[in-house]
Write a structure and sequence with these properties.
Layout: E1 5-9, H1 15-30, E2 34-39, E3 53-57, H2 71-86, E4 90-94, H3 96-110, E5 115-120, H4 123-127, H5 135-144, E6 147-150, H6 153-163, E7 169-171, H7 187-192, E8 200-205, H8 214-227, E9 230-235, H9 241-249, E10 257-261, H10 266-270, E11 275-278, H11 287-294, E12 299-302, H12 307-310, E13 317-320, H13 325-337, H14 339-356, H15 359-373
Parallel strand pairs: 1-2, 1-4, 2-3, 4-5, 5-6, 6-7, 8-9, 8-11, 9-10, 11-12, 12-13
Helix pairs in contact: 2-3, 3-5, 8-13
Bound molecules: ligand GMT.
Protein name: N-acetyl-alpha-D-glucosaminyl L-malate synthase BshA
GO molecular function, one term: glycosyltransferase activity
Organism: Kurthia sibirica
């Protein structure tokens, strides 16, 4: 396909959507496209120099006459400038609001015929879509885009139910960079963390928000730990972390629950783990599950959102209802007691990432969309 000039906007510091947008930008650059990140700060995963990746910072001045700093207007204005200065073929924005709305405004300001692709990641729909003050803006952002994608079928359906857009929505699943997420030997690190040979390791990674149900993970661990020598690694930081630490302290197994805080090298940490837990009440996809699976760690997740599109129950993990810590613990104990089954789940996890969420497969799906919407020269 022809090489395109693509503007990408995301929240550069926010979890999965920022990770996906940045990884996609890097992969597209490696395939010869010219990438222009138009974001409020340097995306945190952009940790290497690429000759064809450019960063256009959106600066927002906080004038005392304004009650709120005008981020959305500053972004739209910057988008318009970059569209014109760099002769962009399209904008790919992550989140309907504010980014799709800003893209529509930016295109209008530029007076140029660029395409707009919007990817929905979940929080913009499942949380904000319920806020009647914002549904009109979300619908506007979606309808003004040339192509809208959602990261799971579940999110696609939810968006149609909640927002009733006039636009069709395509599912394009998330992917992982296999060069970073692959199975590694975790023995040395296990020793460094004083994890003994007979212990199994459960892991959870999140931003410790209420929707992630971290208390359910600790509760599940306590039930597992009663039956099996094990450790729980809790990775990340956020509003519920303090309460989670108090909860952990009050259990008889406080020393076996390790809070590791925010971590960069997740693939190294997954090398120590046997089973990943994601017990959220809302989850459009569950990128952290996919990252763990690529490292050979099967998952137990809840029956909501896109999780059942990632975990195939009984093959590469298990699905439980939200809050059902008994079922989660039963499945974990069953797997921990049956090394052969755990090994077959590990292999199935790696296989399903390769078959269904391979980076080249997903990047090619985006390229086919770009080809349809890119400016016609
Ligand atoms: O889960 C979060 O709190 C972060 C959020 C985000 O906006 O970055 O993640 C969303 O996008 C990820 C990437 O597509 C998905 O893997 C997450 O499931 C989704 N989170 C929710 O739907 C709650």
């Amino acid at each position: 396909m022809r090489k395109l000039k693509i503007g990408i906007t995301c929240y550069p510091t926010v979890g999965g959507s920022g990770v996906m947008a940045t990884e996609l930008g890097k992969m597209l650059a490696e395939r010869g496209h010219e990438i222009h990140f138009i974001t409020s700060s340097m995306p945190f995963r952009l940790n290497k120099v690429y000759p064809n990746i450019f960063f256009h910072e959106v600066e927002v001045n906080n004038y005392s006459v304004f009650q709120y700093p005008p981020y959305d207007i500053a972004l739209a204005s910057r988008m318009a400038d970059v569209i014109r200065d760099e002769h962009l073929d399209l904008l790919h924005v992550h989140y309907a609001i504010p980014h799709a709305v800003c893209a529509a405004l930016g295109r209008d300001m530029s007076g140029e015929d660029v395409g707009i692709v919007t990817t929905l990641h979940g929080t913009d729909i499942t949380v904000l879509g319920d806020d009647s003050l914002l549904t009109t803006a979300i619908k506007y952002g979606i309808d003004k885009s040339d192509v809208v994608t959602a990261v799971s079928n579940s999110l696609r359906e939810q968006t149609i139910d909640l927002i009733h857009p006039n636009k069709d929505i395509e599912t394009v699943h998330n992917f992982v960079d296999e060069r970073e997420y692959y199975p590694r030997d975790g023995q040395a690190l296990r020793q460094a963390f004083s994890i003994t040979e007979d212990e199994k390791v459960m892991v959870h990674v999140s931003n410790f928000r209420k929707v992630k149900h971290v208390p359910d993970i600790i509760e599940t661990f306590v039930k597992v730990r009663k039956a099996i020598p094990s450790k729980l690694l809790l990775i990340g930081d956020g509003p519920d972390k303090h309460d989670a630490m108090q909860q952990a302290k009050a259990t008889p197994y406080a020393d076996d629950i390790l809070f590791l805080g925010k971590q960069e090298n997740l693939a190294e940490l997954y090398a120590m783990a046997d089973l990943k837990f994601l017990m959220s009440e809302k989850e459009a996809f569950g990128l952290v599950l996919l990252e763990a699976m690529a490292c050979g760690v099967p998952g137990i997740g809840t029956n909501i959102g896109g999780i059942p599109e990632v975990i195939i129950a009984g093959e590469n993990g298990y699905i439980v209802e939200v809050g059902d810590t008994d079922a989660a613990a039963t499945y974990a104990i069953e797997l921990f007691k049956d090394e052969e089954k755990l090994q077959s789940f590990r292999e199935a996890a790696i296989r399903s990432v390769k078959q269904r969420f391979r980076s080249t497969k997903i990047v090619e799906e985006y390229e086919a969309i770009y080809e349809k919407v890119a400016r016609k020269k």
